[in-house]
Amino acid sequence: MPTTVPALIAETPGASFTRSTIERRDVGPNDVAIDIAYAGICHSDIHQAREEWGAGIFPMVPGHEIAGIVTEVGSDVTKHKVGDRVGIGCFVDSCRECENCLAGEEQFCLKGNVATYNGRQYSGEETYGGYSTAIVADENYVLSIPEGIDLDVAAPLLCAGITTYSPLKHWGAGPGKKVAIVGMGGLGHMGVKIAAALGAEVTVLSQTLSKKEDGLRLGATDYFATSDDETFKKNSKRFDLIINTVSADLPIDKYLSMLTLDGSMVFVGLPEKPQTFRVFSLTGGRRSLAGSNIGGIRETQEMLNFCAEHGLGADVEVIGADQVDEAYERVVKSDVRYRFVIDTATIPENAA
Ligand code: NAP
Ligand code: ZN
Ligand code: ZN
After folding, report:
1. Taking residues 320-324, what's their average pLDDT?
2. 129 vs 8, 68, 297, 344, CA distance in Å?
3. Which residues contact 31 (CB under 8 A, 6 or more apart)?
4. pTM for this predicted structure
């Protein structure tokens, strides 16, 4: 029998969140049931709940930064057991057969993976995310959260952590490399921590200097305001890698001018509108402009283990179910330090 569980629901695009309930499927042989403890608020939740990327599936229960405890396992489950600390990120299934799935890059599944929310299972059923008290998922898409990272600061690693870890690794961030992180938000602050832990020299490019102290505390050695045009001149041809986490439009040519010979600028931020740049900005330095999307299951586990080894978690502000609408407004205004995380114990009606 499916289980009815409390959830925060947006009935229509842009609607306020209301307390309601959703059905979670019965625990199948390969499934684990998880009591969700915390769910991070990613800017992608806002883009989707407001239909900034196109039509969404409503009612919507966002949340793809999920951390909790296993409460039940199916008969064939081998990877997790009751009581384990686990997490779920941006997808809960993939075809498992295509070359990308076989390579452990399920985020690029050729059939299309099953998004944790605002998606459909291959059976056609809608998916509902982490703004809820429990979830059931296939064990292969459930990550182990190592001891040593608390669940509230672990939750954002499931998206913000892997989305920055994956391109930093892919483009070789490490000792001797100069890396710039654009945007000190949820993704950006994890990018700073991870790039520094990988041994790179890290610079933050933020709109203002208001978060400079934090940036330096998290591991950056330099911090510049992009509202000051001098920043682009001072850092001309400096960086091997620029990771752009910004959710809005950027003057891309100015950023490309800060790349060294053969440098790469990688987009992970996903603005609503198309972006433009001059081809000359690339050819002048054999530069690359690229994109990256979360990471596969194997790499996500690697990232969690890396964060545990280096003592890294997100800097979070834990909020209750009543504060989610306000938190969305604050994220849009870049007023977040540095990830809102919902304490899901506040979601049930009687917790109000
Ligand atoms: P966030 O917490 O809102 O951080 C975004 C940061 O961008 C802000 O803190 C701000 O940093 C900067 N910013 C915002 N508006 C700006 C503007 N108009 N001009 C210049 N900078 C601006 O968001 P997030 O959760 O980190 O997500 C960032 C983006 O990545 C979103 O578009 C999200 O959908 C996307 N995303 C992509 C993936 C992927 O796999 N590719 C995964 C997760 C999220 P400062 O205050 O420092 O300037
Ligand atoms: Zn996300
Ligand atoms: Zn696949």
Report:
1. 98
2. 10, 13, 17, 12
3. 25, 73, 74, 77, 136, 137, 138, 139
4. 0.97
